[in-house]
Amino acid sequence: MLKVTYYGHSAFRLSDGSQSLIIDPFLSNNPVSPVKAEEIKADYVVLTHAHGDHIGDALKIAQQNNATIIAVFELANYCASKGAKIHDMHIGGGYNFPFGRLKFTIAHHGSSNNDGQYMGSPAGVVISMGGKNLYHCGDTGLFYDMKLIGEMTPIDIMLVPIGDNYTMGIDDAVKAVELTNPKIAIPMHYNTFDVIKADPSIFGKKLTDIGKNSIIMSYGETIEI
Ligand code: NI
Ligand code: MN
Fold first, then answer.
1. Range of the domain at 26
2. How many domains are there within the chain?
3. How many whole angstroms from 170 Cα to the centroid of ligand 1?
4. How far is the CA of 97 from the centre of ligand 2 (A)?
5. pLDDT string in tens for the chain (225-residue length)
6. What CATH number did the domain enclosing 9 receive?
7. How far is the CA of 140 from the centre of ligand 2 (A)?
8. 165: left (phi > 0), else alpha (psi -120 to 50), else beta?
9. Which of 60, 88, 108, 141 is within CB 3.0–4.6 Å of 76 for a Cys-Cys bond?
10. Rounded to whole angstroms, how far apart are CA atoms 151 and 114?
11. Quick one: which ligand is closest to 107's CA?
């Protein structure tokens, strides 16, 4: 069993009933987040890259929960320099954590922090937890190797950016789902700001047309698979 909660933008909390983690916890400055960072309980914080709309409240949430931040080497060590407990990894590497296995994938994007410092490669992440496999694409353009990601780990849930401008737009996101072939696709990284406005029902419709399932999550909603 895996519970997935959406806080808007690219922020999701995963729980298997005993362990929990939060991915890209952009909450306090996120205009659509239904929760504040202070309310979040998590054993781990997973970061795909260092942009402000992803690192968000990571340091605060890690500190208040005595949680470990999992990220690529450069970003993890930046978090450690700010006092966080970390587990550093890199693209292509997986590790068996108490909650399950986590592996970083490529993502085509940037990753500097708010001070403009280089924070290593941006990433996507495949997480096996509660008997399910979830792929959070991070921020990325479309790439053909998504097919390989889905072949190496059959994906139950794929979290896909659809907002365009900084990431894939709807048509590329539909192709990404076709390549990865998950059981369910969930759109993310849209409608947080004007520049990434997108209609998720169009994404859902285009997936239906190619025989793929999607769930459009509302802010604060939890689904269980
Ligand atoms: Ni970004
Ligand atoms: Mn972003």
1. 3-224
2. 1
3. 17
4. 26
5. 999 999 999 999 999 999 999 999 999 999 999 999 999 999 999 999 999 999 999 999 999 999 999 999 999 999 999 999 999 999 999 999 999 999 999 999 999 999 999 999 999 999 999 999 999 999 999 999 999 999 999 999 999 999 999 999 999 999 999 999 999 999 999 999 999 999 999 999 999 999 999 999 999 999 999
6. 3.60.15.10
7. 9
8. left
9. 88
10. 35
11. 1
